[in-house]
Design a protein that fits this description.
Number of domains: 1
Keywords: Membrane, Transmembrane, Transmembrane helix
Low-confidence stretches: none
Number of helices: 3
Strand content: 5-15%
Number of strands: 2
Radius of gyration: 17 Å
Length: 103
């Protein structure tokens, strides 16, 4: 188990700002988890009774999140925070919820 140092700052614009020292390790864990998830998607995508379109879309979102987090750990950002991959994940969740039957 790793312990992280939390720094609390007060800002006039944002209010309380919490910063984690050495947050790059959290992004490494997220990259590893996303990589395992993408391998699981690739392995199970061609199995019968699987929604291939949704699995392909999910794979695209996970790979985009991996690229976005790798760029963040190297000091390059597409947009501040990982908002693009989060919006893509919300769109995928909305499409997944629409596949259920309404009662």
């Amino acid at each position: 188990m790793m312990k992280f140092t939390l720094v609390i700052q007060i800002d006039n614009i944002f209010g309380y700002v919490f910063s984690i020292i050495d947050e790059v390790y959290i992004y490494y864990g997220y990259i590893i988890f996303s990589g395992v998830l993408s391998c699981f998607i690739i392995i199970n995508k061609d199995k019968p009774h699987v929604n291939k379109k949704s699995m392909t879309m999910l794979l695209f979102i996970v790979l985009f999140a991996i690229v976005e987090n790798i760029l963040y750990t190297f000091g390059r950002e597409i947009v501040c925070y990982s908002i693009v991959s989060e919006v893509l994940a919300l769109i995928a969740m909305n499409l997944a919820l629409k596949t259920f039957k309404k009662v």
